[in-house]
Amino acid sequence: MALSNGCSCRIGPSILNADLSDLAKECQRLVEAGSDYMHLDVMDGHFVPNLTFGHPVVKCLRPKLPGVFFEMHMMVSEPEKWVEGMADAGADMYTFHYEATDDPVGCIRKIKEAGMKVGMGINPPTNVEVVLPYVDMLDTVLVMTVNPGFGGQKFMTECLPKIEFLREKFQTLDIGIDGGVGPKTIQQCADAGANLIVSGSALVGASNPRECISYMRGIIDSGLKEINSKR
Ligand SMILES: O=C(CO)[C@H](O)[C@H](O)COP(=O)(O)O
Q: In this structure, is the dihedral angle defined by the CA atoms of residues 21, 176, 54 and 52, taken in order, positive or negative?
């Protein structure tokens, strides 16, 4: 995909609640349903209280999904550690958490030097203003609307003002939203100004994922149009 290049809607399924024993097939199914990219959740059991997988799995997945954009959502402490491994495995974007490192600039540099795009995630308790010194260096900011660690949690509406704040300031920034996003909450995501839509259990479990993606895309496209018309 590349990212959106000027802020248009991109839908990236989170595979956390998919059948991880058949990850390639699950990703393929969601790509065929119209997804724009895959949001791959990496958890280390330290930054978050759960474990998933690391770069060896991504390396196996890469040749099975040629051309599919992989965003690695690195819910790990010391995110600097895994940059080379993920780049070598074929990841396209490395989204680390602001809360996970003492040196965000060093981490951003390392990711760029490794040839990947860079995202910065912020957890629900984190003030959105912390990202401001870094925005010019980032490809995306990922606003969490659940405390990371598990799929299927309740969407935290109280995080939406962070997206409104960022969209007000940065018209073309790719702003991701992650946690509890699906057809029931997509209107709120659109009204706030999100354009990178990470949807896990609602999309992976949808009886018709194509319809689900197209519905969410329609709402986000209209939301972005509405926001831009008011400028
Ligand atoms: O990062 C995550 C959790 O830490 C997941 O991407 C996210 O929660 C998606 O799952 P769901 O849409 O079911 O909430």
A: negative
**Whether residue 198 has its Cβ less than 6 Å from ligand 1:** yes
Domain locations along the chain: 10-229
Q: Which ligand 1 atom minimizes the distance to the CA of 153? A: 14
Distance (Å, whole) CA 28 – CA 39: 13
Q: pTM of the prediction?
A: 0.97
Ligand 1 contacts CB of residue 4 (under 6 A): no
Pick the CATH number of 10-229 from 1.25.40.390, 3.20.20.70, 3.40.710.10, 3.40.50.10420: 3.20.20.70
pLDDT at 51 over 90: yes
CA 137 to centroid of ligand 1, rounded, Å: 25
Percentage with pLDDT > 90 across the chain: 95
**C-alpha–C-alpha distance, residues 163 and 216, integer Å:** 17
ipTM of the prediction: 0.97
Which pLDDT band, with edges at 50, 70 and 90, does 6 fall under?
A: low
What residue type is assigned to position 125 of the chain? P
Helices and strands (H, E) in the chain, number of each type = 8, 8
CA of 65: how far to CAs of 31, 91, 117, 204, 222, in Å? 9, 11, 19, 17, 30
Catalytic annotation, residues: 41, 178
Question: Which atom of ligand 1 lies closest to the CA of 48?
Answer: 4
> What are the residues whose beta carbons fall under 8 Å from the beta carbon of 213, sequence distance 6 or more?
11, 33, 34, 35, 203
